[in-house]
Design brief:
- The structure is a single chain.
- The protein has 399 residues and is of the alpha/beta class.
- The chain has 4 domains: 37-96, no CATH class; 99-239 and 326-363, no CATH class; 243-308; 364-398, no CATH class.
- It is 49% helix and 10% strand.
- It has 18 helices and 7 strands.
- The protein has a 7-stranded mixed β-sheet.
- Helix 2 (65-76) packs across helix 3.
Length: 399
């Protein structure tokens, strides 16, 4: 037994045990205070209403979160002058993103969905809402779209570019091609943003609607978020960039060069006139050397992703005869008959049935012509007669 400092026995301590030193509390600060650190504490973080509005406007204008936040930093005179950081800005923007519905839009959508489901239980739709139950994204597929996908779902085109400028809100149709070479709708989406998470939600909703039967090939524009979502939801599908969208960017990316006209001609020759991969590689290298394009970032990305858009690389895959240029132009021409820059979403939904009936009537007319107004054979060979009887007029002309 040990003896305490006062000479008395200490019964609470056994032999061999160490005595713990008494704990002390120092009420004095033993480190320097850093006032600027206070803005990092959650209790001090706040995004004021005018700043929230600016963040939303910049986001709607397509300005990324980093640039959006940095503009606030510059305007405030430095990071220390802000009461929030980039993560806070990103979280707020994600919460604020929702479909920009006008007066009567939500009611029109609800009425349309209820009417279609009452007509057929095979009409499916999905609604994605935020934490405050505001509509963020929509998806729907009618009976005809689901039926057409069973026959013509091998190749799908997905495009969000048409209505973006008109409504500041992407209308995202899934488009295929039927046996007449006419484009057909295979599902539809209305989106509040164009990020990876949004596309993943839409693609999964559409895939579930189509009995999880993934397309073999899909055509889109050069959207990185879209590409990420395709790799997640359709990992086995061959992904191709729309050639029309790629070539449309030539003026934007190369117009500043003094030799723009020869450059544009060289680019077109390389893309359209090469018959083999080796020939493309040779002509591409010649173009880079002639115009000193080795430091051009845009061309570097195109070359790295050449398997997604160059004709000699994609021609080995079945694309259902889908022409990307014709697809984009015909889609625009079709919608121009039903909407204009002042059309509201409510009006668009009301016009939607008219547009669908127009597509159905177009196909019925083509079916009739293929049955009763056959194109004449050009030869005496029997196999041409077989083609004439087996194919629609459009496909027979192609053969």
């Amino acid at each position: 037994m040990e003896v305490d400092s006062n000479g008395g026995d200490n019964p609470s301590v056994n032999e061999g045990e160490q005595v713990e030193e008494p704990k002390k509390v120092n009420l004095e600060h033993n480190h320097d205070l850093i006032p600027t650190d206070s803005r990092h504490f959650a209790m001090n973080k706040k995004i004021r209403t005018p700043v929230k509005k600016r963040l939303e406007i910049n986001d709607q204008a397509g300005i990324g979160v980093s640039r959006n936040y940095h503009s606030m930093v510059v305007e405030a005179g430095g990071y220390e002058s802000l009461t929030f950081d980039e993560r806070d800005a990103k979280n707020y923007i994600n919460r604020a993103r929702k479909l920009r519905l006008g007066e009567g839009d939500a009611k029109s959508l609800q009425s349309y969905f209820m009417r279609m489901q009452a007509h057929s239980e095979k009409f499916l739709y999905g609604i994605d809402v935020d934490e405050e139950f505001r509509i963020r994204n929509l998806f729907w597929a009618d009976v005809r779209s689901r039926a057409m996908y069973e026959s013509f779902g091998d190749v799908v085109s997905f495009d969000t570019t048409y209505l973006t400028n008109k409504y500041d809100m992407p209308f995202a149709p899934f488009v295929g091609v039927n046996h007449h070479g006419q484009f057909i709708f295979l599902g539809y989406g209305l989106l509040s943003s164009e990020d990876t998470d949004t596309f993943v939600w839409l693609f999964k909703s559409w895939l579930n609607c189509m009995s999880n039967n993934s397309p073999k090939a899909i055509i889109t524009d050069q959207c990185r978020a879209m590409q990420n979502a395709i790799e997640i939801v359709f990992p086995q599908a061959r992904h191709r960039w729309c050639l029309w969208h790629v070539m449309k960017k030539i003026p934007e990316k190369l117009k500043g060069y003094a030799q723009y006209e020869p450059i544009k001609l060289a680019m077109q020759n390389v893309v359209y006139d090469c018959l083999t991969r080796d020939e493309f590689e040779e002509k591409w290298e010649e173009m880079l050397t002639k115009f000193n394009f080795y430091d051009n970032e845009w061309l570097g990305v195109l070359y790295h992703e050449r398997h997604r858009w160059v004709l000699v690389y994609v021609k080995v895959i079945f694309w259902a005869g889908m022409s990307t240029t014709q697809r984009s132009e015909s889609m625009n021409a079709f919608f121009d008959e039903y909407v204009n820059p002042k059309t509201t979403l409510k009006q668009f939904v009301e016009q939607y049935d008219n547009a669908l009936r127009s597509k159905v009537e177009e196909e019925k007319k083509s079916d009739f012509k293929s049955r009763h107004k056959l194109f004449d054979c050009l030869t005496i060979y029997g196999f041409e007669k077989q083609f004439q009887q087996a194919y629609t007029n459009t496909k027979f002309k192609e053969v």
